[in-house]
Design brief:
Strand content: 15-25%
Shape: globular
Distance between the termini: 41 Å
Helix content: 25-40%
Largest sheet: 7 strands, antiparallel
Number of helices: 7
Length: 279
């Protein structure tokens, strides 16, 4: 079992809408040794590795993100002193890491299924970061448990449904083709997020599309993120796409949840349109 049973009880009580702290047992796992991570960076296809300078603004413009001038392998090898940030994506492409991912998600599968429906798109991501690195303000489309393995980081998270941080149009834009995860960060947000410090053995569940940013502590950080989509997250994405389509044609769609029957119809229409475009 990857997670402490007591923390799974807390996860069950608060999933899916609220952040939850958990404890895990992966800090000494051999798959997180630096030589294994270097080998993984070398083996993964280019599209599955993202890396750049870690000296970034909280509200970093994604089009102006500075690179570090190194290869992915060299970025991991020299992570202690190259002021960089790298994510190894879809680690389930490797059989050993796939087994680890399934072990972690197996601990929470029954809880998740009962609340949000069947898990799918089960994916794993490993983040390796230089001391002091920043992951800019952004949101993710998945249910996400971030597990700290080495070093420390502080994750500042904001409520996923609060339009004071992210209005309806920003949600809709996120789901358009080519939409980026990074979000504008305003000075008035300072002090309004919930700060969670993660040390080795700590984990945090982040709800779908909860805006957050991350600051690494004074040592190299290694984290594992295990993610999944659900029937609930799919429905939310389809509703935002449908609302964005209507808004683009001059309509003013109601806030999600204001008219449940209308929302279900919009989700169905979006699903049908998606199948049509795939055929």
């Amino acid at each position: 079992m990857a997670f402490d049973p007591a923390s799974l009880s807390a996860f069950s009580a608060r999933y899916p809408a609220s952040p939850v702290r958990l404890r895990h047992h992966l800090t000494d796992h051999p798959l997180f040794a630096m030589d294994r991570l270097i080998a993984l960076a070398r083996a993964l296809p280019e599209k599955s590795v993202e890396y750049n300078s870690g000296d970034l603004l909280i509200g970093q413009d994604p089009d102006k993100t500075p690179m570090n001038g190194l290869s992915a392998e060299e970025t991991v090898r020299r992570i202690a002193d190259n002021k960089s940030w790298i994510v190894l994506k879809n680690i389930e492409q490797n059989a050993d890491y796939a087994a680890l991912l399934e072990s972690c998600l197996g601990d929470v599968a029954d809880i998740a299924h009962a609340a949000t429906g069947e898990m799918h798109m089960r994916e794993g991501f490993i983040f390796v970061s230089s001391p002091g690195s920043v992951t800019p303000f952004h949101m993710d489309p998945e249910h996400n448990i971030l597990m700290q393995v080495r070093g420390t980081k502080v994750l500042t998270i904001f409520p996923s449904g609060a339009e004071s941080f992210l209005d309806a149009e920003a949600h809709e834009a996120f789901h358009k083709p080519g939409g980026h995860r990074n979000l504008p960060y305003r000075e008035e947000y300072e002090g309004k997020g919930e700060k969670t410090e993660l040390s080795p053995g700590d984990a945090l569940y982040a709800p779908v599309k909860a805006p957050h940013w991350v600051k690494v502590g004074p040592e190299v950080s290694v984290s594992l993120s295990v993610t999944w989509r659900s029937e609930a997250s799919d429905a939310e994405a389809h509703l935002r796409r449908a609302n964005g389509w209507l808004r683009g044609r001059g309509a003013a769609p109601p806030h999600p949840g204001a008219h449940p029957l209308r929302d279900r119809a919009a989700v169905l229409a979006s699903r049908i349109a998606e199948r049509f475009h795939r055929s």
